[in-house]
Design brief:
Dihydrodipicolinate Reductase, domain 2, 26% strand, alpha/beta, globular, six-stranded parallel sheet
Amino acid sequence: MGQPIRIGLVGSGFMGRCHANAFRSVGGLFPLALQPVLELIADIDEAAATKAAGALGFRRSTGDWRRLVADPDVDLVAITTPNALHAPIALAAIAAGKKAVYCEKPLAADPAAAQRMAEAARSAGAVTMVGFNYLRNPMIRTAGDIIASGEIGSVIGFRGVYGEDYMANPATPHSFRTDPAGAGGALHDIGSHLVSLARYLLGPIEAVVGVTTTIHPARPAHAGESALRQVEVDDRAVFLARFASGLVGAMDVTWAATGRKMQLAFEIAGTRGSLAFTQERMNELRLYEAGQPAARAGFKLIESGPAHPPYGAICPAAGHQLGFNDLKIIEVAELLQALSGGAPAFPDFAEGWAVQRTLAAVLESSATGAWVTLPAG
């Protein structure tokens, strides 16, 4: 057993449960110098927090996140709250001297708040990580290795799409996801994942031009109510991105894609080959190699297995497949490894800020109809 690291989790919804599961599971799968202890969970009130502690295995609970951040028995703060709370919780945790702050995406409600978080972390020397968990898929890392090796030649094209349908029904009520002051909208909610993936594979984005649209102009103000309230965020965003390399890519993001549950997908064309991937078949990557005989030309299937680390830490057999929660476990393992002297944590708050600047630039472009240039980085 490694040295204990005591976890404080803020929020027990969908992502809170994913985090709790990852912290519970990681020590049995990865050899770690640090072993998580589920110390304290905070939720909207004392009753919700007590219930969450029992369900998720935390030693203690509180209805006030400020108590969690100030608690000397919490070493690492994980944040899975609505977006508007990310910055105040993270900034308080950094100021309290916590060893690490682990925050779900998008990093903050706006780029200015993300900047404050990134700069505070840098000044304090805090280890940070943003929950872009799809980057942990071994097939994404394999794609990155193939691109970096030059195997498909110079990249000349990128097409990315992220489609889900959880907001396709106009009767789905407002929530923090539709809060215009809290990084609401499809672009921030799921487009942030696509931008993070594009940056990981292809490098910095230097300019964007795009259009955002609201498909359903009104939604129920609250669940079970007939009264409608205007929607002020995007349901779909379509944009071009010019990368620092000169490559221009196209991205299409919507949470109203009827029938789609997890279509985070891309095709990358190179001068000597191409790659194709969709998270709906997350254990598969397709590779096309130019120069094949015409009778046998086509994409070949690369199937995830122990030859694609860290798959083997979770399953010893190829083709048995990883799942969504496994990616979160891998993410937590890498955060704990960074804390004990391993490779630096990535994506950190600085990268989360860069992603958020890109999203803000798309919204600005949609309002002005012009290309928007981003700062370098």
